[in-house]
Design a protein that fits this description.
CATH superfamily: Inorganic pyrophosphatase
Shape: globular
CATH class: Alpha Beta
Strand order of the largest sheet: 1-4-6-9-7
CATH topology: Inorganic Pyrophosphatase
Distance between the termini: 25 Å
Number of helices: 5
Strand content: 25-35%
Order of helices and strands: HEEEEHEEEEEHEHH
Number of strands: 10
Helix content: 25-40%
């Protein structure tokens, strides 16, 4: 990295807050360990979601019923669920006509610690996932543990996590969009998978991100070029 590039990177970091989806790296050890942005915390009565254009956390909706997320919940930066994610879903389930949901890869992080609010970054180690299909959209949920957590941090694979907690996660995702009286369920969990498959889905979502948004490592050079062409 040239001195000009280093200084430009330093100045942008000082002057601007990074966009949680596009401006934050998933980390040097991804996908084995990933930086994650947390939107909601366990038992949160309001569902927050990242506003994609601004990068600001916004209220999506109040939780209308008693089913609340039992873990930290957010997404892995610089991932995207599109063609490669959908392709894997169809290959594993035998379904056709599946597409990616157009969002970053969701992640549920197990920890013994209590957090009062979302909108923060943490390091998590994937141990498995839920292959969720919402209508015709692939909507995977990676399951991970907080790095260094005293209770869950030693888990290496999904089988090391409490079965009851995984069942609560399954129940939450099968019910949180289901409004009584509105007809048959649109959401299904087609597969509960292990760490190896979780890493594969993270790799695919990273490839989808690069295909749709470009390589993050080239952006500073593009910015420098554009700034240099200004009158």
């Amino acid at each position: 990295m040239t001195e000009d590039m280093r200084r430009l990177k330093e100045l942008t970091a000082l002057m601007f807050q990074a966009h949680p989806w596009h401006g934050v790296s998933p980390g040097p050890s991804a996908p084995e360990e990933v930086v994650s942005y947390i939107e909601i915390v366990p038992d949160e009565s309001v569902k927050y979601e990242l506003d994609k254009p601004t990068g600001i956390l916004r209220v999506d909706r109040p939780q209308r019923y008693s089913s609340l997320c039992p873990t930290l919940y957010g997404f892995v930066p610089q991932t995207y669920c599109a063609e490669k994610v959908a392709e894997r879903c169809m290959a594993r389930t035998g379904r056709t006509g599946i597409r990616g949901d157009g969002d970053p890869m969701d992640i549920c992080v197990l920890t013994e610690r209590t957090f009062s609010h979302g909108a923060f970054l943490l390091r998590a180690r994937p141990i498995g996932g839920l292959r969720m299909i919402d209508g015709d959209d692939a909507d995977d949920k990676i399951i991970a543990v907080l790095e260094g957590d005293l209770v869950y941090g030693a888990a290496k694979d999904l089988g090391d996590a409490p079965a009851g907690l995984i069942e609560r996660l399954r129940h939450y995702f099968l019910s949180y969009k289901q409004i009584p009286g509105e007809g048959p369920r649109r959401v299904e969990i087609a597969e509960v998978y292990d760490r190896a498959e979780a890493l594969e889905m993270l790799r695919r979502s990273s490839e989808d991100y690069r295909a749709h948004f470009g390589a993050p490592e080239t952006r500073m050079g593009e910015l420098k070029h554009l700034m240099g062409t200004e009158e």
